[in-house]
Amino acid sequence: MADKPIVGEKRAFMTGNEAVTWAALAAGAHIMYGYPITPQNEIMHYWTRMAPKYDRGFLQTEDELSAGFTCIGGVLAGKRAFTGTAGPGTILMQEPLSMAEMMRIPMVTVICQRGGPSTATVIYSQQETRLTCFGGNGEGYRLVYSTAGQQDLFDYTIKAFNVAWKYRFPTFILSDGYQSKMREPLTIYDPEERGIKMVETEPLLGGTGIPGVDRDPRHLRNTYNMEDELYQVVMDMDQEYKRIAPEVVEYKAMETEDAELVLVAHGIVSRATEGAVRVLREQGYRVGHFRPITLRPFPGEALKEAVAKARRVLVVESSMGQLAGMVKEELYDLSVPVTGYFRPGEGITAEEVVEQVRGR
Amino acid sequence: MATLPQPPMPVVWRSETKPHKFCPGCGHPLVLKALGESIEELGIQDKTVFGCDIGCSLLAWDFFNLDTVQAHHGRVTPVIVGLHRANPRLVGIAYMGDGGGYAIGSQHLVNAATRNEKIMVLLVNNTLYAMTGGQMAPTTLPKQKTETSPYGREPETTGKPTLGPEMIRAIAPDSAYVARGTVSRLPQLKRFIKKGLENVVSGKGFAFIEALSLCPTNWRTNAEETWKFLEQDMHGYFPVGELAPEKGEE
Predict the structure, then answer these.
(1) Does B113 touch chain A (CB under 8 A)?
(2) Is the Cβ pair A220, B68 closer than 8 Å?
(3) More exposed terminus of chain A, fewer Cβ within 10 Å: N or C?
(4) Residues of chain A whose C-beta is under 8 A from some C-beta in B?
(5) Is the pLDDT of residue B248 over 60?
(6) For A138-179, what is each residue's pLDDT tens digit?
(7) Domain segments of chain B: what residues?
(8) Right CATH for B20-242 from 3.40.50.970, 3.20.20.70, 3.40.50.880, 3.40.47.10
(9) What are the strands, taking DSSP E only, across A68-190?
(10) Residue range B177-200, pLDDT digits in tens
């Protein structure tokens, strides 16, 4: 068996799916469960090539329902288990994810967004934002990191395993087909050498000792008989989610101090909006940029600060306002108008954003 | 208060959660008792994880002194598959009803069998969806009346009852153990369950056991009619016994 997948650190030129796989290996992920769907496939391709060398497991399931539920099983056995999917697969995955939400299962799911609704396209899109954050018949008790490139994918995949097991909420890497397929330079590293200690895992079922003799049996369920019983479960979860939110939220604000216009974008689109801010600043426009990195929990307070002096907010996204909806909810009690530049299922360039701003 | 003499129960029987939550006359507790005794006799209480499904099977979630998980409808199979894949030391049991196994979760059952997952699926067949109020299931007998076949099941439009073990035998490798037992022959059912567990404990292969069971609540039968329906109608359609592999594969 080979030693560590990555020793020290090194520069690499990789696709996003490759970066995710290396990160999962470096993070000590034990097993992946997956079902083929574009643009997620290469995570499985790389994983199945490398996993045997590092004594990691893999199961190709019969569908995404099974990929999600087997992943829950892997977590119950106490393993760092993950899965990945996209589009219609993300829809099916909501069923296991809602069980994971209810039972606080720290599974990690990589969502490689593709166009929708339905089968649609496989590259540009941010149309699974709402589904990833709020899918299922619950309240969205999930931790969602929206990445903006290969370095992010590597860094946050490692982080996802840690926050999942630390806080015990299902955790997501929200990427897209463009990040999955493009190559970029990045630095890959052994987390330990960066001072990142991986959070220990533990079996939730099948631990040591005879249940009922040496210890109480663990009886995990997601069904409740009484309304009051469920209410208490949900309220406890809500309280815990709100308690940890300040520790979890992440964002990036740029040139917002004096900004009259604040662009808001997440994921890969934020690369275009950041680029646009640089160009516009050179041309004398007082434009700033705000990028939520966590979409759940949402960095609402930081967003409010970022738009404090703004006369307008422009949300830019590759969907018809899924992020804008979240932004409006956060800014509801402010008078600043929230407008949008929406390109559902299409890529957005910095030039387009510059034009949008200058044309107004 | 004087305590009446109690029948001997397996050590995995969790007395804190008794009386159990099943209806009077239900077959589940009989199947679970046979399972509990098998686990005790094989001495695998410390490494067995019991998963139950949606439907009446979920009422077993706290039945045993075992680690347990209750899953969604039809999904206990993948949960137990995933658990066992991640920790093959564990003995995984997926416990479900006929709706969970043959309808909503059939793709999981079929694929777990073809992959020869080293887990045991124990499926309780009472010919209908009991927890939801007695709707037609894949196993409902021809002419049998249910809430969604109020004039009797019509095979022409709704198909014939699913023969689960026969299907699994046809698709699973020879090393899989497949049997159909009945709560009216408990020692035999227990023998099947034990052999199924031995098959997975030894790492030989998949195990699938269907247990023909009782549901007087939804059948709307008295004691006599209940046993008659099981022993005449159900036994007549669903052959009881082990299903040996066709000769020649191994």
Answers:
(1) no
(2) yes
(3) N
(4) 30-31, 33, 57, 59, 61-63, 65-66, 69-79, 81, 95-96, 99, 203, 205-213, 217-223
(5) no
(6) 999 999 999 999 999 999 999 999 999 999 999 999 999 999
(7) 20-242
(8) 3.40.50.970
(9) 81-85, 108-113, 143-146, 171-176, 183-189
(10) 999 999 999 999 999 999 999 999
ipTM, two decimals: 0.95
Nearest to B46 among A76, A79, A210 (CB): A210
Give the angle A144-A147-A149 at the CA atoms, nearest 5°. 165
Lowest mean pLDDT among A48-57, A183-192, B9-18: B9-18
Residue A200 has pLDDT above 70, yes or no: yes
Cβ-based contacts of A75 with chain B (< 8 Å): 86
| Dihedral angle computed from the Cα positions of residues A287, A291, A297 and A302, in that order, rounded to the nearest 10 degrees | -40
pLDDT at residue B82 greater than cutoff 60:
yes
Number of domains in chain A: 2
Write down the residue that tokens 């299907």 correspond to.
Answer: B167
- Beta-bridged to residue B13, according to DSSP, are B64
Two tokens, residue A153: 């994918």
Question: Contact A181/A38 with Cβ under 8 angstroms?
Answer: no
Can you tell me the distance from the alpha carbon of A98 to that of A261, in angstroms, rounded to the nearest whole number? 38
Please report, as a single letter, which amino acid is at residue B62: D
Is A319 a member of any domain? yes
- CA dist B234 and A239 (Å) reads 51
User: A205 and B69 in contact by Cβ < 8 A?
Assistant: yes
Tell me the chain B residues in contact with residue A217 when contact means C-beta distances shorter than 8 Å: 14, 62, 64-68
Using the beta-carbon criterion (under 8 Å), do A223 and B61 form an inter-chain contact? yes
For A76, the closest of B46, B58, B69 (CB atoms) is B69
Q: Spell out the alpha helix ranges (H) of B141-234.
A: 155-158, 164-171, 186-201, 216-219, 223-228
CA distance B94 to chain A (A): 12
